[in-house]
Amino acid sequence: MSDELKDIVLNYVTKEYLEDDSEPLTYDTPLISGGIVDSFSMVSLKRFLENKCAISIPDDEATPEAFDSVHKIVSLVQRFVAKKG
Amino acid sequence: MSNIGSYDERVKNFSWTIAEKELGYKPGDVINIGWYCTDRICEQGKGSKVALHWEGFTGAEKTYTYNDIRLASNTIGAFLRGLGLKDGERVCLFMDKIPELYLGFLGILKIGAIAQPLFSAFGDESLFVRLSNAEASAVITQKKHAPKVRKILEKLPHIRHIIIVDHDGVAPLKDREVAFSLERSAPVEHFDIHPTKAESASVLHYTSGTTGMPKGVQHVHYSLISQYLTAKWALDIREDDIYWCTADPGWVTGTSYGIIAPFAIGVTQCVLDAGFSAEAWYKWIEKRRVTMWYSAPTAIRSLMKAGDEIVKKYDLFSLRHLASVGEPLNSEAVVWSQKVFGMPFYDTYWQTETGSIVIGNYPGMEVRPGSMGKPFPGITGTVLDPVKSEPYATHGKIGLVALKFDWPSRMRTYWNNEEAFQKKFRNGWYITGDRSKIDKDGYFWFAGRDDDIINTAGHLVSPFEVESALLEHPAVAESAVVSKPDPINLEVVKAFVALKPGFIAGKDLDLEIMNFIRKKLSPLAMPQEIEFVPSLPKTRSGKIMRRILHAKEWGEEIGDTSTLEND
Q1: Domains along the sequence of chain B with CATH
Q2: With contact defined as beta carbons under 8 Å apart, do A30 and A68 qualify?
Q3: Average pLDDT across chain B, whole number
Q4: How confident is the model at residue A82 (pLDDT cuts 50, 70, 90)?
Q5: What ranges do the domains of chain A cover?
Q6: How many CB contacts within 8 angstroms connect chain A with chain B?
Q7: What DSSP state is assigned to residue B88?
Q8: What would the pLDDT profile of A9-32 be if each residue is shown by its tens digit?
Q9: What whole-number distance in Å separates Cα of residue B182 and Cα of residue B14?
Q10: Calpha distance B379→B373 (Å, rounded)
């Protein structure tokens, strides 16, 4: 699940937030601190994750630090998927 | 002792000639902002002083002295002139906060052209509206943003050149594109700076209004007089400061106080081109020993949310003075900064149209948490009775914030829209569009906008622009856009959407529409919440009653519904 989710998130961010000529993303590319996803766009990324994984991420957990790479996003999502049981 | 000294004494003895004399300017002289920001500082013997410390998100660092920025702006100016660009033409800057944005701004001004900075996160539609209205002749951009320009280029016949500052020399250049590398260009030592005068157009900043498309606020080179003095007195910038203005030069704060004022003063400033992170920001202040920090309430509230423990990890004792801009600074943020930094953020109030600070809290003056402060010396500010369009005779009543329109950096017009410009005045007063009251001691207290404009994270978003864009989505039949309260951003955009037959409301459509607006307009304009409704409240004449939706979001009284159409 983890590898599959990483690819899903990577592909989504690439498709939605990257311009055509940009450097390809990796699982560790800084997304927020790297200026690829700004704090406003984070809302739509959070919505995507919630829809995709049928979870709800509290606003105080959806921090720039938690969303700063594909790896970190997947760690966050997996916590809430696990809580769902 | 602060630069302003006693506010009351300054008010009594004020004249804008104070700034003119400090800058060595006399009425009728040539005045070119690019020269004042670079050459003049070098002629004072400060050419080897650091003007700019820049750091990008990968950790790349660049440092420029005043002589470096003099040469760089000359070089860019010469390149632009070589392309045939002339004084009065609009040259757009569409870049991240990279050095070429700052240096390109000065280069454009040196040839007497008009700089049109645009926020690099703008989508192609937002970009098109602004470039076509300005009839821009050229766009200076980066390869990552060039695709957005290419997408709309066919509809922009006025654009003759798209200048790509980081072209890799490998990918083929497309229609009207030309590569320029500051690093690989031979520096231009002697440059014939265009002899602009006080009323020569300098900068065009686009701002959103309630109705219609964004308007181009046109400024002139004489704006330097206000920007210079307000930076010295309101922001208390001193020559030995290390100054950090967090604003992007796509917005007026980033040009007035991120380029013009600090460089004209000759201060060392630092720029961090990275997304927001509390850790990264505090690390930056510690690393650069920032002494004067000018930021925005949304960022301050985000820092508050990150907690006090992070602050303790860093040595921030270099900080001497803090100020904020863009939206009202809530009293909690003022109290918090006093607690964690040992000093409050001093709120400043102004807008794109004013070009510089007009009301503020000043060093030495009592800061009343939550207050906008008092008019800057030389500014006559009041609150008008909305019905009579006259100043209230007594204090404490909420009305329209109004200013006597006579300071150097006031806008001169809206580009190609003199009619809209004239509508900004009532009874001889310039109306800012905000409401406020004045207390018995002369402090202004913000009381909301007088129109439907949404102020999100300090940036104005037009509901009309978002509604128009929503109608371009195939699923949307009609929409109404209002502001929704937000603890960090003050307000965010919320859209009420009625769908066309055959479309089903749901999470997937919700996300699709959000992304549609984000890419078409900007992340700021993206509705943070969409509520699907069967229909929108309208008057009998068919006008959408946004105020009813707004009142519900803000928990306010809905008011008179006698004109509401009955279902």
Answers
A1: 7-435 (3.40.50.12780), 454-554 (3.30.300.30)
A2: yes
A3: 95
A4: confident
A5: 2-17+26-84
A6: 76
A7: T
A8: 999 999 999 876 677 899 999 998
A9: 42
A10: 13
Query: At B531, phi and psi to the nearest 5?
Result: -115, 120
How confident is the model over B162-186, as a mean pLDDT? Answer: 95
End-to-end CA distance of chain A: 14
The kind and range of the H/E element at B447 are strand B444-449
Helix or strand run (H / E) with residue B445: strand B444-449
Instruction: Match 């300098």 to its residue by tokens.
Output: B202
Which is it for the CA torsion B93, B95, B101, B107, positive or negative? negative
- B9-18: per-residue pLDDT in tens? 999 999 999 9
Interface predicted TM-score (ipTM):
0.94
Per-residue pLDDT averaged across B432-457, rounded? 92
Average pLDDT over residues B534-557: 86
Nearest CB to A40: which of B277, B511, B526?
B526
Mean pLDDT of B485-494: 92
* pLDDT at position A78 over 70: yes
Please report the beta strands in B248-405, taking only residues with DSSP state E, as ranges in sequence order. 268-273, 292-295, 321-324, 345-349, 359-360, 374-375, 381-384, 399-404
Q: Is B506 on the interface with A (CB under 8 A)?
A: no
Closest CA to B496 of B483, B512, B515: B483
Strand B177-179's sheet: what is its strand order?
A: B177-179, B161-164, B138-141, B90-94, B114-117, B201-207, B215-220, B413-414
Confidence of residue B566 (pLDDT cuts 50, 70, 90): low
How many helices (H) and strands (E) would you count in chain B?
19, 27
d(CA B462, CA B556): 21
* Helix intervals (H) in B257-323: 261-265, 278-288, 297-306, 308-312
Rounded Cα–Cα distance for residues B3 and A4 (Å): 60
pLDDT category, B146, cuts 50, 70, 90? very high
Kindly report the nearest CA distance between residue A85 and chain B, in angstroms: 22
Number of C-alpha atoms within 13 angstroms, CB side, residue A84? 12
pTM, two decimal places: 0.91
Closest residue to B275, CB basis, from A22, A33, A51? A33
Contact residues, chain A, for B456 at CB < 8 Å? 40
Q: Closest chain B residue to A17 measured between Cα atoms?
A: B519
Distance CA B128, CA B206 (A): 12
Q: Lowest-pLDDT range, B36-40, B207-211, B245-249, B462-466? A: B207-211
Distance between CA B253 and CA B403 in Å, rounded? 20
HSE at residue B289, side-chain half, CA atoms within 13 A, is 4
Measured torsion, CA atoms of residues B70, B73, B78, B82, in degrees rounded to the nearest 10 = 180
Q: Residue B14 burial by CB count (10 A; 0-12/13-18/19+): exposed, middle or buried?
A: middle
Main-chain dihedrals φ then ψ at residue B483, nearest 5 degrees? -90, 155
A39 near B CB under 8 A: yes
Q: Phi/psi of residue B204, each to 5°?
A: -125, 115
| Average pLDDT score over residue span B372-400 | 96
Which of B121, B147, B302 is the closest to A20 by Cβ?
B147
Assigned CATH for A2-17+26-84: 1.10.1200.10
Matching residue, tokens 């009594």: B12
pLDDT band at B452 (very low <50, low <70, confident <90, very high): confident
Contact list in B for residue A64 (CB cut-off 8 A) is: 275-277
**Distance from the first to the final alpha carbon of chain B:** 66
Measured between beta carbons, the chain B residues lying within 8 angstroms of A50 are 507
Give the pLDDT confidence score for residue B328 in this predicted structure.
85
